[in-house]
Design a protein that fits this description.
The chain is built from 17 helices and 27 strands. With 680 residues, it is of the alpha/beta class. Strand 7, helix 5 and strand 8 form a beta-alpha-beta unit. Helix 12 runs parallel beside helix 13. It is globular and about 90 Å long. The mean pLDDT is 95. The structure holds NADPH dihydro-nicotinamide-adenine-dinucleotide phosphate. The site of NADPH dihydro-nicotinamide-adenine-dinucleotide phosphate has 24 residues, from helix 7.
């Protein structure tokens, strides 16, 4: 079967016979892949001219709903993907991580839309006051880039690798060109066929290249973004591509990572944390046969427990059944191919020059239902390096397979130093029940890691584990790990957007951001905003209320009614040395009195309920005899999806609440939220 490339709106087979791709378990031919004859310049241009405009004009909410629809569709097709995934040597669990983990990223980013406005672009941070009079301000905004996201992926996660990246660039409003590692691209192709056939994405949002990337990177331009996952050596070559440098194309790299786990000094073999530690290591060595960028390559234990630890790990590894992933009993499958196995063996041989093999056999492995001469199988391997400060290969060589090295440390300071010897890693874990140890480790090792897991009895049951990158958390590490960042919720979306500081009057900034800015012109007159349905309300709709005098009796009554008899609200307090001159009104009373002024709704109307307060500041004391009034402005509108069929259709409306006294000075400022009915 010759794989096809989905480019410029068509499925196209490349010229020539192409590279042969083999089943990792039985060595049989699965497919061939070639990109010969493809015009990479046109492919990029198609993404920019067709996919980009379609996506960038959609709002975040529309793009999020699109991701949800796609995720639901792919879940329905998942069995098909599992069947193909077995060819990569993956067990059911391995495939679950790749396939459903990838689809989970789509769901997660679909929900992330709620953190963004219902606009194609968004604000970044708070507005900045640039003038005394308040007529000149600035706001950072983010707009989708006008290019494409080019993703060059590794062989180990043919589905997750594509979806974890694309979910983010699609939410940002940017199309993707995916180039999976050729060796497992037959699985990516099956998934892309389903995505394209579903018609859920606008045409041009996704193109697929199965095989050599040709001169693709020679045509990327400044509005494009390139991400790379793979080996450090390839990453360096691509990162220094002249065109990428000339065009200042953002290049996000995720490469080799010598992740570690540390056993805290407080843990001994009688504690549940000991079992948690051993279990986590076994999982990280055997899941995906250790072919995970986050897998634990280095294990650090207090020197007094070194022997106990390696015996326990070896025992645990010996329970792993290895073989044909189609057999239900099998817990560890094959590596992705024979060349991968050769590479891992060569790297292990390098490590064995300065360490010894404690568990496993580099050349032999016992298998269930599989032929070791045909499949890319390798035994789990545990190595011991007793001098980790002198024998440094273990901190430099990544064995991308079921291999890890155990090492001793003398104290926490040494554990931190050893963790940092990886020169930058995607993640690390510490297993400890002592939070002082956890704090010392985290603050010491944080500079060299993208993510740190503190594992103990309190969280182990629900922990997502050392090796799982999560869509809402940053995935990436400094230094050797490539210095890149992927995902991370809202942070990840920003990678595909251009940040621009916009300066102008509050009224101009309101018009652009659709968020009312203080001192902008309001729309006064007409009916009370509480009488308008969600669709009828406009950002900037405003009322200025009548006035109310605040009396000492009001304050006393509020104190009695609420039970809040704080000294500042009592008339007979000695105010010397306090912040106040005399009895002062409760802030919550001022807020309630303000509500009495701005609320209109003695009959049921479009406003369904008071939803809460985002922020509230009391900026000036209100003394008896003061007169307050309110300026109340529609600040922002957030549509809500219906959860159930017979839900009342509604949205959230944020209101800017400004309360003033008789001198027109502001006494309180807040943002309050209501739920407002839709007319239709
Ligand atoms: P490679 O670096 O060889 O390949 C990664 C990707 O880059 C593949 O899609 C590959 O395509 C592509 N590529 C290679 N050369 C070029 C080029 N000149 N132009 C454009 N694209 C190119 O890594 P592998 O996937 O083969 O993995 C090798 C090693 O990388 C592993 O053994 C492991 O050590 C490390 N690795 C690290 C990961 C991490 O995140 N820490 C993840 C995965 C791997 P093609 O397949 O067509 O060659």
């Amino acid at each position: 079967m010759k794989l096809e490339n989905y480019v410029t709106g068509n499925w196209i087979a490349g010229d020539g016979e192409g590279q042969q791709l083999f089943d990792a378990v039985n060595g049989e031919l699965v497919a061939t892949a070639t990109t010969k004859g493809l015009d990479f310049d046109s492919i990029l241009e198609y993404g920019r001219k067709v996919g980009n405009p379609a996506l960038r004009k959609m709002t975040f909410h529309e793009r999020g709903r699109m991701l949800r629809a796609l995720a639901t569709h792919l879940m329905e097709k998942k069995e098909k993907f599992y069947q193909v995934s077995y060819h990569t040597g993956a067990t059911k669990t391995d495939s679950w991580i790749d396939i459903e983990g990838g689809i989970g990223n789509l769901f997660s980013n679909a929900s992330l839309r709620r953190k963004f406005p219902d606009l194609p672009y968004c604000t970044d941070g708070d507005p900045v006051q640039l003038s005394k009079g308040g007529s000149f301000i600035a706001q950072h905004i983010l707009v989708p880039k006008e290019g494409v996201a080019v993703h060059i992926n590794a062989f180990n996660f043919p589905v997750w690798g594509m979806l974890e990246k694309c979910a983010v660039n699609w939410l940002a409003g940017v199309p993707a060109i995916v180039k999976p590692a050729t060796i497992t691209s037959y699985l990516t192709e099956v998934v892309v066929r389903e995505i394209i056939a579903s018609g859920i994405l606008p045409e041009g949002s996704l193109q697929l290249i199965c095989g050599n990337a040709g001169d693709l990177l020679d045509h990327v331009a400044s509005q494009d973004t390139v991400t790379f996952t793979g080996s450090k050596s390839t990453g360096l070559i691509l990162k220094s591509n002249e065109n990428i440098l000339q065009e200042s194309v953002p290049f996000n790299m995720e490469a080799d990572s010598l992740n570690c786990i540390v056993l805290g000094e407080d843990v001994d073999p009688g504690m549940s944390e000991w079992d948690i530690f051993i279990k986590e290591i076994r999982k990280e060595i055997t899941v995906k046969s250790g072919q995970k960028c986050t897998a634990i390559r280095r294990i650090f234990v207090p020197e007094k427990l070194l022997e106990d630890a390696y015996i326990a790990i070896g025992k645990s590894l010996s329970q792993t059944i290895i073989g044909n992933p189609l057999n239900d009993k099998v817990r560890m499958g094959a590596l992705a191919g024979l060349s991968q196995r050769d590479e891992v063996r060569n790297h292990v041989k390098q490590l064995l020059k300065t360490s010894s093999l404690i568990y496993g056999d580099l050349e032999d492995v016992e298998l269930v239902d599989a032929d070791k001469k045909k499949g890319a199988f390798l035994s789990p391997l545990l190595l011991l390096n007793e001098k980790p400060f002198y024998e440094e290969a273990v901190h430099n060589v990544e064995c991308f397979g079921p291999v890890s090295t155990i090492m001793p440390y003398a104290d926490m300071e040494q554990a931190v130093q050893l963790a940092k010897k990886g020169k930058g890693s995607l993640c690390c874990s510490i297993v400890t029940a002592n939070n002082d140890i956890a704090r010392d480790f985290v603050t010491g090792a944080a500079t060299h890691h993208g993510r740190i897991l503190i594992l103990n009895n309190e969280c182990a049951k629900e922990s997502t584990g050392h090796g799982s990158p999560l869509p809402m958390l940053v995935h990436g590490g400094p230094g050797r790990a490539g210095g890149g960042q992927e995902m991370g919720g809202v942070r990840g979306v920003k990678h595909y957007m251009q940040l621009v500081a916009v300066q102008g009057s509050p009224t101009s900034i309101t018009a652009i951001t659709k968020v009312y800015q203080q001192n902008a012109k309001g729309n006064t007159g007409g009916i009370h905003p509480f009488r308008k349905y969600f669709e009828e309300l406009k950002v900037g709709d405003q009322i200025v209320t009548g006035k109310r005098e605040i009396t000492s009796d009001d304050i006393n009554e509020f104190a009695d009614f609420s039970g809040d008899h704080f000294y500042a609200h009592k008339v007979d307090t000695d105010f010397a040395g306090t912040m106040f001159e005399k009895q002062v009104a409760h802030g919550y009373f001022i807020l309630s009195a303000a509500a009495g002024l701005f609320v209109d709704g003695s009959d049921p109307g479009p406003v369904l309920l008071n939803y809460g307060i985002d922020e509230l500041r009391f900026t000036k004391p209100v003394y008896p005899g003061s007169t307050i009034y309110v300026r109340f402005t529609c600040k922002e509108k957030i549509p809500l999806d219906k959860k159930e069929e017979n839900d009342i259709p509604k949205g959230i409306v944020k209101w800017l609440l400004e309360i003033f006294d008789e001198t027109n000075e502001q006494v309180a400022l807040g943002t309050i939220l209501t739920m407002v009915k839709l007319k239709e």
